[in-house]
# Entry
Amino acid sequence: MEDAVYNLDRVATSPAPRDQPDDVGDVHFVPAPCQVACPIGTDAPSYLAYIWQGKIEKAFEAITATNPLSSICGRVCDAPCEPACRRTDSDGPIAIRNLKRFVMDHLGANFQLPAVEPTRKESVAIVGGGPAGLTAAQDLAAGGFEVHIHEMSDRLGGMAAWGIPAFRLPDRIIQEDVDRLLSRYPGIRVHLNSALGDNVSLDDLKNHHDAVLLTVGAWWGKTMEIPGASLANVVDGVGFLREINKGNRPKVPEKIVVIGGGDVAMDACRVAKRLPGCKEVVVVYRRGPDEIPARKDELDGALKEDIDFIYHTQPVAIASDGGADGESLKLQCIQTKLGEPELDGRRRPVIIDGSEHDIDCGMVIMAIGQQAACDELDKLNLMDGDRIKTSWESMRTDDPQVFAAGDGAFGGSTLVMAMQHGHRAAYYVQAFLDGVSAPIPYRTPFRTRRVPIAQDSDWEVLARREADFHGLGENPAAFPEIESTYSPTEAKDEAARCYRCDVETGSYDYTVSSREDIFVMARAQVTDTALQTALLHKRLAQRPNPFEEGRPANLDDLVFLPANLSRLVIDPYRDACNIKTQLFDNVELSLPIVVAGFDNAPEQTRHNLAKGMAMEGSAYLGAKPIDASIPWIQVCTAATGIDINANAVALRTLDQLPSANERQLPIGLATGTDQLEQNITRALDNGLDFLLLEASGPTDGVWPELSGPPDLTLLRDTIAIMRAMNREEDLKIIYHGGIRTGTDIAKMLALGANAIVVGAAMAFALGGEIEMQEFTFSNSATIEDQADGAACLLRAMGGEASIMARCTGKTDVHNLEPEDLRSITCASAEATGVPLAGKNISAG
# Structure
C-alpha cells in the first residue's frame, strides 16, 4: 500500500484533468494517504471531521461527490484507504468504511440532491450497468449528456448485485444508490434485459448515439483445466453466487470445498455455509496465509463462521466415487511450498513431489477468477482473449467511436477500482464529444473541504471500534446481515481518532507539503533514482513569495530552529529554563521584561499596572516612576534632572551626564538609528552602563509603537558596531519597539538584547482602546481586571520566551543566540542579519 501512496506521483503531481475540480495546486494542501489510496479520491478526512462535528449532510456530500455507489461501498468496499491510514501502525486504522456506512444509513435512503437535466444534444450509450457503467453514466449526465444504459440482466448493479451475497450487501442498499443516481440525473435512461448481440447490436448503438462505452464486466467465472472439472456438483464461483442472488437456496451436500483465495472464494465459502444441508466448508489455497489475496476482514469473517482453510495445496484432478447424483467427490491434491516471487510480488507455489492426497467432499466450487465474453464483440475483432482490446491511455477500442472500461476491459478488480475506470472513461468520452483530440491525461482529482481541526480531547486513547459481528444468525439461509451500523456516539468516537493528515498545521518553513515530502523521503528506496531526483528538484525549487512586494521586515519572519537542528543540550519538556535578569547591580528582575508608555495614563490604571508588575517582578521605564515598589529606569530629558529615586537613568544627551565622581546610578544613553555609531562610541568612551535602543521612536513619546513598524536594523547595527570595536559585552542593551509576544522577546534576546521593553501590548492587556493614535483606558475597569491583565501578560510572555529557549536546547533565555534563528524573508534576513536558507544576503 505504501507504494501506492509514497511514490513519484506524490512528489511530482501531474496536472489536474480538464474541467475536473482539484485542489492539489493549493500550496496548503496535500491529499492524505487515505485519500490517495482511494482510487476515486474520496475526501475521507473531511467527511470524518464532519461526522465528529455532527454535520452529517456535509459528510454525505463529501462521500457522494465522487462515489455514486456510496451506500454499497459503505458495506463492501475493499477499503484501500484503511491500510494506508497512518494510525494503522499504532492502534489500528480508522474504520473509514464503517463510518461511510453510518452516514449512508443515516441519510442515504431518503436524502435527495437537486436534479441535473441534460443540456447537450449528444447522447452516449453504455453497455453494462455495473459499477464502471453507473459511475461513467453519472459523470456524463453531470456533463449534460443524455445517457442510455443497456443492461443484460433484470437489474442494475453488475457484480455488486449478482456476485455479493445479501448478508454482506442487501438488495435494498443497492437500490438506494440506483434510485439516488436516477433521480439526480433524469437524463439517464435504463434498458434492462438488453444484451449486446442478442437484443441490441453495436452498430445500432453507434447509429443512435454519438459515443458508446462498453462496461460489460467479467461476468463469467473461470474453471480449472483439470480432469473432472466438468463433473456434476463442480461449479464456478461466479455462477454459483449468481444463482444464489437470484433468490435460490438449494439443498447442498454436507461438505463443500472452495478452491481459491480471493473475494469470490470468500463469498462462495460463506454462502455455502449458510445453505440447507451444508455442515462443513473447506477452502483450499495453493499458497500460504501471508499470500492469500482476500481482504482481511472477509477472511476473519470466514474464520469466525468456522470455515476451514487448507494452505499450500494445489488441486490437480476431481474424481467421482460414483455416488448418487455424483455427490461423492474426491478432490485430488498435491502439496506445495513457496518459491521465488512472481510479478505480483507473491511467491510462486512449487509442487512437492510425492505429496499427493485426496480431500473427500460432495461439491467443489472453483473460485479462481473471472472473465469477459461477448460473441458480438468477438465477431467485430474487438476482443483480445477474455478482454476487450482497450488502450488505458485513452480508454478507446480499435473503433474510434467506442470506448471501454471496467473488468471487461482490464480484468477483474475491486468495486472501487471499477468505479475509477468509470470516471476515467467518462473523462475521455467527454473530451471526444467536445472535440478535444489530446486532452490532459487523466488522473484521480483530489479535493478538500478545508474542515478546521477541532480534535476530541480523547483522540489519542480512543481504540478502533469494530462493528458488532453477528455471524450466521439464527436462520442462516435467510442471509441476515453480518454486521451492525455504528450508533451516533460510536461513529463520533471512531471519527475522533483521525490524525487529520490533510490539514496545514505548519508554518511557512514547515508546511504540510514539506511534512509529506519527509514521509516520502523516509520510504524512498536508494535505487529509485526517478523518485530521488524528483524529491531533490522539488526541495531545491525556489518557492513563490507569499508576501506582497515591499513587505517590511518584521519579527514574524524570524523562526526558531528546534534543538535537534542546532544543538540538543536539554530535554525541553522536563528541564527548567532560567528567565531571571540581572540588569544592573541594583536591578534584578524576575523576567527580562520592562514596561513603558504609561507616564500619562490615568492614575488608577498606573496603580493597577504597578500591582500586576509587582506580582511578576518587572521594571518600569519612563519619565516618572510607576510606583515606589517597582524598579524605575528614568528617561531623563533636558527639562528634567536625574531623580535620585530612580534605579537607573537613560539620558537623551550627554549634556546631562554627571561627572564620574557624582554617579550613583547606572547611566545609559537612549538612541535611534541617527548617529548610532557616534552614540555608541560616546557611551563607551564615557563609561556608561547601557544603551536604550528606540526602534519605534522616543520611548517617552506618545505611544510611538502606533506610528509604524519598528526598525529592526537598529539592534543589528548596534551589535555589529560593538563587535567591530571588540566591546560587545561592555554595554547592556535594552530594546524597545514592536514587541507583542514572548516569542518576540526571545527573538530579540537571541539577537543580542539584555532586556525588552513592552508598551502597546501591555496597553491592550489593560483594556486600552486606540483613539487618534493614542490609548484610552476605561474608568469602569476594576483593579483586579487590570492588575490581573498586567500580571497574566508578563507571566505568559516570560513563559513563552522560556519555552522558545528550552526548545532550542537552552537552560537560560540569555543564552539564546542568532544561530538559533532563521529568516523566512529576504527583508527580514537583511534587517536582522539572520540567514535565509538558500540565500546569501549580507546584513545592511
